[in-house]
């Protein structure tokens, strides 16, 4: 199995009259929790309902820990944590929570997950 790539032309921001060709990943669709649960069932002795319930509970409980400022480390998978961006001020005493622009979830894949991509192959496909 290979990740399918397509060729696209993009205008250069530094020179709008010039463009270059790049490769980009062609979407292969997506999978949902049920799809993942069905794959896990094939590799375990658990029922589909057990796996779906566990995954659903994981998705529901993760925000609780993230809102407490805790990171969530799933061994072999990676770490989720909240990151923020804030406005800058000249004097530290002026800083307050109103300077927070946004909070977002950051994911750092585990070494094992990154290494699993070492054997990925690519294939250029026609549009």
Q: Which word captures the global form?
A: flat
Structural class: alpha+beta
Radius of gyration, in angstroms, nearest whole number: 21 Å
Order of strands in the sheet with most strands: 2-1-6
> Largest sheet at a glance?
3 strands, mixed
The percent range for strand residues is 35-45%
The DSSP helix count reads 3
Order of helices and strands: EEHHEEEHE
**Poorly predicted ranges:** none
Number of strands: 6
Can you tell me about this structure?
- The protein has 127 residues and is an alpha+beta fold.
- It has a domain at 31-68.
- It is 28% helix and 38% strand.
- It contains 3 helices and 6 strands.
- The strands form 2 sheets. A 3-stranded mixed beta sheet has the order 2-1-6, with no helix packed on it. It has a 3-stranded antiparallel beta sheet with strand order 3-4-5.
- β3 and β4 (78-86) form a beta hairpin.
- α1 (33-42) crosses α2.
- The longest helix is centred in the middle third of the chain and has 20 residues, at 48-67.
- The mean pLDDT is 93.
């Amino acid at each position: 199995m290979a990740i399918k790539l397509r060729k696209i032309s993009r205008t250069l921001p530094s020179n709008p009259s010039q463009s270059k060709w790049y490769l980009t990943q062609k979407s292969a669709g997506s999978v949902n929790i049920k799809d993942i649960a069905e794959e896990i069932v094939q590799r375990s002795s658990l029922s589909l309902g057990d796996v779906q319930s566990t995954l659903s509970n994981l998705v529901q409980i993760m925000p609780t820990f993230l809102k407490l400022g805790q990171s969530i480390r799933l061994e072999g998978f990676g770490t989720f944590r909240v990151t923020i961006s804030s406005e800058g001020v000249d004097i530290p005493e002026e800083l307050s929570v109103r300077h927070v622009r946004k909070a977002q979830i950051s994911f750092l894949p585990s070494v094992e997950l990154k290494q699993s991509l070492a054997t990925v192959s690519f294939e250029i496909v026609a549009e």
